[in-house]
Amino acid sequence: MKRILLILTAPCYLVSYAQQPDSLVNQKINEIVITATQHHKEYSSKMPLTFLETPQSADVITDRTFKEQVSTNIKDVLQNATGLVRLWESTSVGVTGGEYYSMRGFAFQPNLLNGMASYNNGSLDIANIEQVEVIKGPNGTLYGGTVISYGGLINVITKKPYETFGGDINYITGSNGLHRASIDINTPISKKLFFRLNTAYHKQNSFKDAGYNESFFVAPSIQYNASDKVKLYLDLQYKEAEVANVPMFFLNRTVPLTFDSMDLFEQNYKKSYTSNELTAKNPTLNIQGRIEYKLADNWVSNTIIAKNTTRSSGYDQFLNDMANGDEFVRYISTLDSKTDILNIQHNLTGEFKIGSFDNKFVWGLDYLSKKLSNTDSDYIDHGIISLVHQTDSGILTREAVDNTLKGANKSHRTAKTETFSSYLSNVTNFLPNLSLMMSLRVDHLKGQTSSFTEEKNYETSFSPKFGLVYQPIQDKLAVFANYLNGFVFLDPAIVSDPDGTNKAIQPFDPEQANQFEIGSKANLLNGRLTAAVSYYHINVSNKLMSDMENMNGFSQGGKVKSKGVELTLSGSPLIGWNIITGFSHNYNKVTKSLPEDGNLGTRPEEAGPANTFNFWTNYQVQSGTFKNLSLGFGINSLSSLRVMNRTTIGVFEIPSYTIMNAAVSYSYKNATASLKLDNLTNKKYFSGNSTVNAQGERAISLSVNYRL
Question: Which of these, 139, 192, 230, lies nearest to 517 by C-alpha position?
Fold first, then answer.
């Protein structure tokens, strides 16, 4: 409560910086301009390319959309991206504890903040997000082999200061004890110095009988215009979070499956099999400093330094299938890990001519240091859960769990890598409506990636990219084709013996992916509406595959083929009417793997559902009695998902589902009240990746927003 009061009263201390009341109109206009500019900056290419000029598929989700949807978490925001599906909630463990998503058939985590590496063992807070870019395909050329996935990447763009006073105060309450208070305030300090603060307090219980998350988030940012040519930016984000995670049900991967339906899981839909005493903490700090120097009219230099630290402490637990069609054993561990990231990047962008051909160019240098430190305990069994009887033999007090873990082995393990990279990309316009992109990156990784030896590991990878764009109707219709390469310097993973003992950090060789994509884009209704359709084909080699004999084990050398189609449509076809929708179909198959893995010829569990559909529309009445009344409606539909799919043990399938959401809001002067209903039909639905994870039931939320 103290934090809520602090957030809500903060504007009183800052309002003294406000300008005269007659500047409010200018403030609103200025913010609209900023939003539009952000939407078209295309950070993914690191150069000023428009939607039609970019030879690649991407979705951009602005804060306008998640304000309409009364979103309170990053998962709700990302459900607006075509083909993107969350597989796992955050587990809070070190290195890999963040949320996992799947796109174009490959699992990954959101690890980019303003184009820089940023790791999080928990979940992202949305209070400081201006927009989210979901870039499709393997993007190794501009982002390297540490933060990408072969299906794509998620780049979170934070809010930046602007030159006038303004902001918002927001409070949301709702089902499952939801309380969220946030503030966004911007003020000029002087003619050259501008300050913006975003902060939020969030607390919500699980829809199950136990489990919760509570967090405090603060993100100050500064812009200093030293001169007409030099600008300095400083951004800080800190999130303090404590969560009681609901453990996931892991299906047994070593013997034939004993579950053949969802019946028992549906009967236990609201059972958490945990307690609110067993919590984990995930403090995360991000600091980014950037110097922008305008060398000439068409040449800009950007130097960015980013520091990221995330920690895990507390308890981790999971429920492991005992292969009798009923019972799961709980394995529990104490967490004590830390990830430190230092990322330094320099980009030089410019425009020049070669003869009569216009060129846009970016050259960059990138240094990334990653240090992992882990002192987690071994996993110890603590109780048996029966789905049939809905019982739990484990005593779930902190004292009882600590007694169980007294004899658990702990050993300190570390791994550190450094990656040195250089890349360049050039777009040549041979005609006003015909352009060719050519890009190349080289990465050199060195460091101690294994905890078993002090021997240094050295890896070098090259990543090319080609893209062709032809506009048969200038600025309205484009067709494009691309060849993308992606490589992943795999993070060392925490592995153990089959019984959960002897935990250590194990290294792996880089994976490689190549994508070919063709598609078409259109600007409709004078740019108010954009549409895109594409076909892609991705081949991955040296793929890391899960080890059937060990839940914390892996084998390497697999090959995977993924191909599919995507269609997207977004924009504002009429004043007051917004729409964002998309459909995706993905075919995914393991073409090479060890026979004993049971993966060969199957669709990998990480691939997610083959078909997805997302739709959201919102209309605000522009005149008459109901002026400023807004109505919104959304649909998210996913086909069935094989969370276990092995030729050796069988198939377990989660059924398809369709979730509908609705919202209504009304604005009066500077205040807006919004009512949101999620999961209108109260559908029981699940997600997973070798796991079965129940998702939220029907929930209602009320948002009250005041614009300063």
Answer: 139
Task: Tell me which residue of 180, 186, 325 sits closest to 252, measured CA to CA.
Answer: 325
Select from 115, 24, 112, 35 the least CA-distant residue to 67. Answer: 35
DSSP 8-state secondary structure symbol assigned to residue 165: -
Residue 139 belongs to domain with CATH number: 2.40.170.20
Q: Which among 99, 276, 222 is positioned nearest to 693, based on CA atoms? A: 99
* C-alpha to C-alpha distance for 45 and 49, rounded to whole angstroms: 7
Cα–Cα distance for residue pair 4/16, rounded to 1 Å: 21
Dig out the tokens for 283 from the structure: 């403090």
The CA distance from 575 to 530, in Å, is: 15
Q: What is the model's pLDDT at position 14?
A: 35
Q: Which amino acid belongs to residue 431?
A: L
Model pLDDT, residue 501: 67
Task: Give the torsion through C-alpha atoms of 600, 547, 87, 611, to 10 deg.
Answer: 0
Whether the CB-CB separation of 337 and 95 falls below 8 Å is answered with yes
Rg (CA), the chain: 25
Q: What is the pLDDT of residue 453?
A: 52
Contact 311, 120 (CB under 8 A): no
Helices of type H across 550-693: none
Task: Quote the tokens at residue 63.
Answer: 């804060």
> Cα–chain-centroid distance for residue 389?
37
Tell me the C-alpha distance between 708 and 166, whole Å: 5
Amino acid at 181: A
- Say what the pLDDT of residue 487 is: 86
Neighbouring C-alpha atoms within 13 Å toward the C-beta of 47: 25
Low-confidence ranges of the chain (pLDDT < 70): 1-44, 448-455, 491-507, 547-553
Question: Which residue carries 């007409």 as its tokens?
Answer: 228
Strand 434-448 to 457-473 pairing: antiparallel
Full domain range(s) for residue 316: 2-707
pLDDT at residue 69, as a whole number:
97
Q: In what order do the strands lie in the sheet with 106-108?
A: 85-88, 100-103, 106-108
CA distance 683 to 676: 16
Dist. CA 684–CA 307, nearest whole Å: 41
- The terminus-to-terminus CA distance of the chain in angstroms comes to 23
Strand 299-321 versus strand 249-250 pairing type? parallel
Provide the 8-state DSSP code for 407: G
Domains of the chain: total = 1
CA 511 to CA 529: how far, in whole Å? Answer: 38
Cα dihedral: 262, 266, 268, 272 (round 10): 100
Distances (CA, A) of 509 to 109, 381, 490, 542, 638: 19, 32, 7, 8, 34
CA 619 to chain centre: 28
Q: What is the pTM of this model?
A: 0.90
**128-131-2 Cα angle (round to 5):** 20
Encoding tokens for residue 223?
């812009």
